[in-house]
Amino acid sequence: MSKLSALIAEASEGLSLQERIPDAKWMEVAKKCGREEVADIQKRIESLKAELVSVEDWDGDTQDEINVAIFRFSNLLRLASDDD
Fold first, then answer.
1. Helical H runs in 1-84?
2. 33 Cβ contact list (under 8 Å, min separation 6)
3. Calpha distance 67→50 (Å, rounded)
């Protein structure tokens, strides 16, 4: 079972809703990722890409948020894969 959600929750502990998880914390998350977490990251990226396609053209804010999430998870995937 993937621990990805718990790892992300741990990394965001103490941050306000407006604060982003710092890069150093993403590195810590990546170091704790195993095969199950890497698979979970890949699934999340695919899900976000599918969601992005369904967003209305006029909803640029939502498109931006999804693209940021795709970017963050893609970086996390790269970092987690480098650790293997």
1. 4-11, 23-31, 35-54, 60-83
2. 4, 7, 41, 76, 80, 83
3. 11
What pLDDT is attached to residue 1? 84
Query: Token digits for 7?
Result: 């790892």
Averaged pLDDT, 5-9:
97
Give the global pTM.
0.91
* Residue 45: φ, ψ to 5°: -60, -45
| The residue type at 38 | V
What's the whole-number mean pLDDT along residues 25-53? 97
Calpha distance 64→15 (Å, rounded): 21
The full set of domain ranges for the chain reads: 4-83
